[in-house]
Amino acid sequence: MESAVELVVAQDAEAAAALAAGELVHAARAGLHIALSGGSTPRRAYELAAAAEPDWSRATLWWSDERAVPPDDPRSNYRLAREALLSRLAQPPAAVHRIRGELGAVAAAAELAAALRDVELGLVLLGLGGDGHTASLFPGKASVTERTRLAIAAEPGLEPWVERITLTVPAHCAARRIVFLAVGAAKAEAALRAFGGPPDLATPASLVRSTSGSTLAILDADAARLLQR
Question: Do the domain assignments include residue 229?
């Protein structure tokens, strides 16, 4: 049964990041399989999580999506997490399953799907794009309608215009806990569509709900302003 979304509104972006960091810390201490996201929004949450819990030796890390670039590329989601989280830890995760974007999108997606077989993600942290996308599930792209595979090569839906690798809707929905983090007034309309209405292919984030656990949306007051009317 698809779960409803629990909505938590923080006072500002820093408070929202702190709440997301708390989710990461709880999952790390519990030794869960954790899937991280890219983009600028989660960076502060990663920094706060590393400061609050420097021992991630029980956790296993994955990524919900990646650009088809090497790990040292400025566009790499792995590089973001390495700089904001991994490099700050005293004890690294038990395993880090980087999506190897340098293989090319198709090969990297196949490798990711094979590695994820029989793995239960305990926590997936996701962002929200102004167009309603999450991970690399973009409106109007074939990735949104994929229901068989766990990970696929995905067309870019916005800059940077580079091929991507993404977990699919069913792969995300199989996670025990899904946490969205969205801040800023520019995300308000997307948040309304994603968390205030029915599932809609035009808003991919509205399709991602845990089918066996819980889904949480952490927003700051600006991002939540249309939902609070």
Answer: no
| Sequential DSSP letters for the chain | -PPPEEEEEESSHHHHHHHHHHHHHHHHHTT-EEEE--SSTTHHHHHHHHHH--B-TT-EEEESEEESS-TTSTT-HHHHHHHHTGGG-SB--SEE----GGG-HHHHHHHHHHHHTTPPPSEEEE---TTS-BTTB-TTSGGGG--S-SEEEE--SSSS---EEEE-HHHHHTSSEEEEEE-SGGGHHHHHHHHSS--BTTBGGGG---SSSEEEEEEETTTTTTTT-
CATH for 78:
3.40.50.1360
pLDDT for 40-64, tens place per residue? 899 999 999 999 999 999 999 999 9
Entry pTM: 0.96
Banded pLDDT at 39 (limits 50, 70, 90): confident
112 is in which domain, residue-wise? Answer: 7-208+216-220
